[in-house]
Amino acid sequence: MDQFQKIKERAQLDRLADYFSDVEEDFAKNKEKDLYQKRVDAAYERLFDQLSQLLRTDVRDREDLCSVLADFAAECQESYFRAGMAVGYQICRNLDLEYRKIKEEDAFWDRMLQVFDKAENAK
Description:
By secondary structure, this protein is mainly alpha-helical. It has four helices and no strands. The chain has helices at about 5-10, 15-30, 30-55, 65-120. It starts with a helix and ends with a helix. The mean pLDDT is about 75.
C-alpha cells in the first residue's frame, strides 16, 4: 500500500477522534508548534551527524551539501503539506457526510413525531 493511501485511511473519523483526544491538550497550550520545531531540528541534527560519520567530515561546514539537503527537505515538506491539505479536505468531507446523515436521521424522527402527534390529535 502506498504512503498516500495510508495517510488517507488515517483521516477516518474514529481514528481522528483518538488522535485529537491525545493531542488536544498540547494543541490548546500551543505546545504542538514547539514539538514540531524540536522534531525538525532533531531530525536535521541526526542527519548531519550520520552524514558526518559516513563521510568522515563535518558536513555542517559544507555549504553545497547543506544546500542540497535543504532543497530535498523543502521538497519533502511541500509534498507532506499537499498530502495534509488533501487529508484535511477528506476530513471535512467525512464530517460533512456524517453531519448530513445526522440531519437526515433527525429529520426522519421529526417527521415520525409529527405523524404520531397528528394521529393522537385526531383521536
